[in-house]
Design goal:
- The protein has 194 residues and is α+β, with helices and mostly antiparallel strands.
- It folds into 2 domains: 6-77, no CATH class; 94-193, no CATH class.
- It has helices at 6-14, 36-42, 50-57, 63-77, 157-171, and strands at residues 21-25, 31-35, 45-49, 94-99, 109-123, 133-151, 174-176, 181-182, 186-193.
- The strands form 2 sheets. Strands 4, 5, 6, 7, 8 and 9 form a 6-stranded antiparallel β-sheet that branches.
- A hairpin with a 3-residue loop joins strand 8 and strand 9.
- Helix 1 crosses helix 4 and helix 4 runs parallel beside helix 5.
- The longest helix has 15 residues, at 63-77.
- It is globular and about 70 Å long.
């Protein structure tokens, strides 16, 4: 992954080295937390350090602030999933997917992804005067990912995860532009750049 996520920001905040912890792009293109001297020796490109994060967060780092800090670093350094400057110009739009079931999350907490939407077919019956209406599905390209602090096994995980996702999306420069639709293991809504 060649873009900063809130998980990277949290890892930087929690890092304890004898030298100043830094967040850097390593030679293999991966984002890593290193002691500053190690990053310099390896030839890694330093993006920020723990002192800058502490100044930014005031010592109170939550998921929303971590996502916002990650977004600002990505914008400042032109980082994206592919490593190039990101353009969000998918003509079919984007969908936020909030995972709310243990079988679809990577850890123990609900997470949110922004996925490109794509046309998977056309429906002639629903169109006026025989016009074809596009039928949309999720594409393969994920353009954003954040883990919330909402446990997936909480009684009200879906409601709390949606609220947390909306905060994370806003901090990352996205806005929800459609109604949330429930599925068996996730909740979906159309999103756009704010």
């Amino acid at each position: 992954m060649a873009f900063v996520t809130s998980a990277h920001v949290h890892a930087l905040a929690e890092a304890e080295f004898s030298d100043l912890p830094v967040l850097a792009v390593d030679l293999d293109g991966e984002i890593e937390v290193f002691p500053q001297s190690t990053a310099v020796e390896r030839g890694a490109r330093v993006l920020t350090d723990a002192a800058a994060l502490l100044d930014y967060s005031g010592g109170e780092l939550d998921d929303t602030l971590a996502a916002q800090f990650a977004r600002e670093l990505n914008e400042e350094h032109g980082l994206t999933e592919g490593g190039d400057a990101e353009e969000f110009d998918n003509p079919d739009g984007y969908v936020a997917a909030v995972a709310i079931a243990s079988d679809v999350v990577a850890g123990d907490h609900c997470d949110v992804s922004i996925i490109e939407r794509q046309v998977i077919g056309y429906d002639v019956e629903d169109g006026e005067d025989g016009e074809e209406t596009p039928v949309y599905g999720l594409g393969d390209r994920v353009v954003g990912y954040w883990e919330t602090t909402i446990p997936v096994d909480a009684d009200d995980a879906d409601t709390r995860a949606i609220a947390a996702a909306e905060q994370l999306l806003e901090a990352a420069g996205w806005e929800v532009v459609g109604a949330w639709e429930y599925a068996a293991n996730a909740v979906y809504a159309l999103v756009a750049r704010a």
